[in-house]
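Quarterly update from the structural biology core.
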Amino acid sequence: MKKLNPKYNRYFYLGLTLFLVAVAAKVVEMLLVSFVGFGAVLSAINTALSPIYTGIIIAYLLSPLVNKADYYLFVPLLDKIIKKNKKKAQGIARGLSVTAVLILALVVVFGLIMMVVPEVVNSISGLVSSMPSYYHNVVEWGDKVFKSNPWAAQYFDNLSASMYKNLLNWLENDLLPNSNKLLETLTSSVMDAANIMLNFFIGIIISIYLMAGKENFCAQGKKLMYAVFPAKKVNSMLEVLGETHTVFAKFISGKIIDSLLVGVLTFIIMSIAGIPYTLLISVIIAVTNIIPFFGQYIGIIPSAVLVFIASPIKGVLFLILIIILMQIDGNVLGPKILGDSIGLKSFWILFSILFFGSLFGLLGMVCAVPVFAVIYRMVKRWCHRRLEKKNIPAETEYFQKKIPVPNSEDMK
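Predicted structure, tokenized:
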């Protein structure tokens, strides 16, 4: 048999490896499809692990606050009280930090829920009851605006009637029943939510253990990684994990703070301007603002429709004010809070949201930007290393020039 040219050996083995990987993936897919109970098994495992997922999420979100409480409050205080045993002082300080942060978080979350949810439900109920009068106001406004053009007036009447019918149907059959169910769940129907509350309670307990011993858990994870993989690979993996943590921590915490500020500013500005359903609109804007790029539009459009139905003039005023506020958030608040934690151009942000959103829904849209930011950085770093080995400049500006790329063999 004729041997391959050594020059093409690596391409042959690369192609063979890719082919075998593709065959193995297809075999695994066929096995999973043929295994009828596989989906049920995965569902059962996810259900069993849901309290652990909850605990990990709680611990991850609250750990920065625990670190701050440790560093600025409890560790300096306990070091002065327990001078001879520093390790014991740090252990007690960590316990106090976890307890204080957890109590504060629970008070804030449940306080906001019990304060906001009843008001939101009342706003929705009032909107449903006032819908007929709002509809007549819109029709009268349209007749005045289009009185010189009968065709446009007729078209506006038909369009507003269709929108009114669809909106009223959605409010009465979907939004209002679900909002009432939510309020009942939070107040009287506690037994119906017993499973959720139990998982949440177990998740809080798990988060306490994770926050209290996070350094030890991290050390055990590193120990296992070094035992299984080569040290060089582990160092690379730890570098990636560290950068992933930095991006996620900055982005998620920054986005939550930014959304809260936007919600509070929306409430203040709309209250001063006399915009109806101020609290409901503020909640919608704050929640949807967590979603990058699309979130603002998702919150503004239904809010503008609600205000316009109540009062067309105030609907226009609302759009003007909210656009100004979003410009302030996009150019001042957002960059100040998030900093350079993303490092992505607008196109890649849009691409990541569309891609991950189509795969994982709302959760994918929320996590798309930090996930893609990490992937982008890793690919960029790998590309730069490869170009350096070939003695080719890594700056993008170099490739925008119409000059031949130097041959690495010629530059040796």
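Confidence is low (pLDDT under 50) at residues 186-192.
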